[in-house]
């Protein structure tokens, strides 16, 4: 009998990390990530999780420490938000270029300034090109499941890349939701103990973090890019195996009423749940609306995406970060670029919404839909600006 | 608090302030306000506050105020002071900002003897984020990330910041520790720190022991007891003398130690 319980999403996240039997947790406090790390420190203190818990002096140190522990062959975990990620930035790139298969949960929060502890995606968009596999999940169950899935993907010897699980701060992290827990033996069957392909070991000396002269640097970057692109089928495999085990099936893009849709919303993270309600309401009124939730952000699932939006006339891409001075929101710009060479391509409307914790309601989505279908929307706008 | 007892440089329309009941920030900012009033420097002060509870001081004073990010207030104020040396720079931050995430800045500004004053609020925890283990958490003290209490064999001993800085403080620096349990004394230490800067002598670092009943989960009596007894035992109050200013001058370095060879 599977156990379904109600708990704070951060605690569900911590429970999952515990079930992953991680060896190392290093983190620095930052809102809204704190509850996950606090709960993990309790597990370590009461003996439920046999791990090194290191309350380090900054996020820069947290990720640096995890690079060290992962390089030494330990399953490592860290967790941050916003400025914490910004401070980690240097090491984020180091981790992926060293092909260290660690996992980070990024509880999305706005970057300063003005200072805001609330939710948007400006933090993660600042590391768009960092070379990690990046996932966006939208509810408690997805957060819980993706802890296992992320390690499964990362540690696959065909992948060996770090994974970020993005989920929305407060509007998801601090909610109480129902989650179906997994038995430890089932998790272990899916995620066996970590077997590093490469680890620092004085008996079998190797070098990690090499110097790249101009003669090899480009090749190293090409190899890194190929490795990230080549991870795609292995991500699908990890999802498939988890689906077989749990009955919960995940895909790079999740479609909701897209088949005959003329206008499709594209969202990342928890906003998909509200947008889904808007789509239902629009359908009831006879509008051909649909929703596409982008679960996999890196590597970008171009083919699956193009397949899913075939036949659509308009895409309303909700971005939760501003690319200052750019052609539109970061997600919308990528989608435009992905579609540019297609013969038949829909209009792409870039809507920036939900910055710094601003709610985007069903009514807001309906308003966006109305302005796009009436031909009144511009290609790029910051939606709902007052005054 | 009556109208009369507010320092003149306080911004009245932002009072009552936003700190929790029983928090020490109000008292420290009062002591700081008293020091600024006494020296009549309100029109010269650049007040910088950090991340953590100290950020709630961003609209506290009628002083030029700037807020940056966690731990970075020291270099920001140093930067402003370098281009406006006639002004008085104050960096106001917590123990996490000063001794953990921003420790490199504090150490290096002290080494350079930058002519600013750093005020460090020591409440033994990261209060704004809900009370996690900080560099100043006392041995055995329970926090959200040390649920069994600080274990010195794993997390080390709490940092005595002023003592550490005094050990590297150049001539002319001023390093002290006060407490919210002695507000007038604390105001005097802050005034001396500011005078030190006004005289262009060097860096001033004043740590203030503070209270956090919200995260300590203590009542008024236990809050005060923790401050007066446990904190003050570990973090002694007073002024710390730089090795350079001690009788006998700077510590002697044995330049011939290699030759000696033992």
For this entry, give a set of tags:
heterodimer; A: 387 residues; alpha/beta; Rossmann fold; seven-stranded mixed beta sheet; six-stranded mixed beta sheet; 40% helix; 19% strand; B: 262 residues; two-stranded antiparallel ribbon
CATH topology of the largest domain in chain A: Rossmann fold
Main pleated-sheet profile of chain A: 7 strands, mixed
User: Numbering strands along the chain, what is their spatial order in the largest sheet of chain B?
Assistant: 2-1-3-4-8-7-9
Q: Report the strand count of chain A.
A: 15
Q: Can you lay out the helices and strands and say which pair or pack?
A:
The complex is a heterodimer of chains A (387) and B (262).
Chain A: E1 3-8, H1 9-19, E2 24-27, H2 34-45, E3 52-55, H3 59-71, E4 76-80, H4 82-97, E5 103-108, H5 122-125, E6 133-136, H6 140-155, E7 163-168, E8 176-181, H7 184-190, H8 214-230, H9 232-246, E9 253-256, E10 263-267, H10 271-284, E11 289-294, E12 296-298, H11 302-308, E13 314-319, H12 330-339, E14 347-352, H13 362-373, E15 380-382
Parallel strand pairs in A: 2-3, 2-4, 4-5, 5-7, 6-7, 10-11, 10-13, 13-14, 14-15
Antiparallel strand pairs in A: 1-8, 6-12, 9-11
Helix pairs in contact in A: 1-2, 1-6, 3-4, 6-9, 10-13
Chain B: H1 25-39, E1 45-49, E2 64-67, H2 73-83, E3 88-94, H3 95-101, H4 103-112, E4 117-122, E5 125-126, E6 132-133, H5 152-155, H6 161-168, E7 174-179, H7 183-198, E8 204-209, H8 213-216, H9 220-234, E9 238-240, H10 257-260
Parallel strand pairs in B: 1-2, 1-3, 3-4, 4-8, 7-8
Antiparallel strand pairs in B: 5-6, 7-9
């Amino acid at each position: 009998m599977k156990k379904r319980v109600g708990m704070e999403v951060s605690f569900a996240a911590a429970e999952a990390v515990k079930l992953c039997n991680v060896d190392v947790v290093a983190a620095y406090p930052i809102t809204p990530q704190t509850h996950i790390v606090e709960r993990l420190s309790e597990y370590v203190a009461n003996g439920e999780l046999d791990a090194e818990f290191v309350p380090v002096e900054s996020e820069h140190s947290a990720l640096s420490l995890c690079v060290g522990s992962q390089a030494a062959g330990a399953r490592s975990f860290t967790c941050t938000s916003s400025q914490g990620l910004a401070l980690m930035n240097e090491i984020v790139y180091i981790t992926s270029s060293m092909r260290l298969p660690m996992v980070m949960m990024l509880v999305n929060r706005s970057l300063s300034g003005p200072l805001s502890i609330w939710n948007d995606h400006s933090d993660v968009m600042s590391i768009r090109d960092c070379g990690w596999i990046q996932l966006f999940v939208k509810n408690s169950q997805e957060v819980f499941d993706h802890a296992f899935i992320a390690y499964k993907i990362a540690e696959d010897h065909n992948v060996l890349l770090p994974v970020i699980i993005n989920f929305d701060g407060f509007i998801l992290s601090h909610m109480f939701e129902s989650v179906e827990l997994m038995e430890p033996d089932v998790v272990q069957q899916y995620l066996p103990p970590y077997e590093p392909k490469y680890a620092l070991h004085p008996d079998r000396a190797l070098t990690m973090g090499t110097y790249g002269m101009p003669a090899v640097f480009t090749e190293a970057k090409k190899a890194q890019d190929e490795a990230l692109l080549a991870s795609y089928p292995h991500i699908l495999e990890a999802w498939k195996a988890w689906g077989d085990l749990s009955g919960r099936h995940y895909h790079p893009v999740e479609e909701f009423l897209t088949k005959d849709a003329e206008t499709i919303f594209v969202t990342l993270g928890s906003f998909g749940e509200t947008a889904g309600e808007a789509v239902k309401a629009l359908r009831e009124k006879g509008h051909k609306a649909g929703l596409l939730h982008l679960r996999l952000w890196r590597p970008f699932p171009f083919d699956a995406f193009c397949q899913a939006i075939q036949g659509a006339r308009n895409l309303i891409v909700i971005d939760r970060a501003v690319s200052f001075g750019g052609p539109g929101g970061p997600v919308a710009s990528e989608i435009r670029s992905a579609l540019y060479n297609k013969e038949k391509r829909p209009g792409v409307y870039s809507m920036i919404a939900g910055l710094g914790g601003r709610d985007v309601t069903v009514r807001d989505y309906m308003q966006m839909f109305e302005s796009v279908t009436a031909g009144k929307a511009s290609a790029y706008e910051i939606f709902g600006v007052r005054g | 608090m009556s109208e009369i007892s507010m320092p003149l440089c306080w911004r009245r329309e932002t009072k009552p302030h936003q700190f929790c009941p029983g928090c020490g920030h109000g008292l420290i900012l009062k002591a700081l306000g008293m020091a600024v009033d006494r020296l009549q420097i309100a029109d010269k002060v650049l007040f910088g506050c950090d991340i953590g509870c100290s950020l709630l001081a961003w609209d506290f004073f009628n002083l030029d105020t700037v807020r940056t990010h966690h731990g970075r207030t020291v270099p920001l104020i140093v930067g402003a002071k370098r281009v406006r040396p006639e002004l008085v720079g104050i960096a106001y931050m917590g123990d996490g900002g000063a001794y953990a995430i921003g420790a490199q800045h504090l150490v290096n500004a002290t080494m350079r003897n930058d002519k600013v004053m750093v005020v460090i609020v020591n409440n033994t925890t990261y209060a704004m984020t809900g009370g996690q283990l900080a560099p100043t958490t006392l041995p055995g003290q329970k926090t959200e990330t040390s649920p069994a209490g600080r274990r010195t064999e794993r997390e080390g001993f709490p940092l005595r910041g002023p003592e550490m800085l005094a050990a590297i403080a150049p001539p002319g620096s001023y390093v002290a520790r006060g407490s919210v349990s002695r507000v007038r004394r604390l105001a005097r230490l802050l005034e001396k720190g500011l005078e030190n800067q006004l005289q262009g002598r060097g860096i001033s670092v004043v740590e203030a022991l503070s209270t956090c009943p919200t995260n300590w989960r203590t009542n008024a009596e236990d809050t005060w007891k923790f401050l007066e007894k446990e904190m003050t035992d570990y973090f002694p109050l007073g002024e710390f003398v730089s090795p350079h200013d001690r009788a006998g001058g700077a510590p002697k370095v044995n330049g011939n130690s290699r030759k000696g060879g033992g």
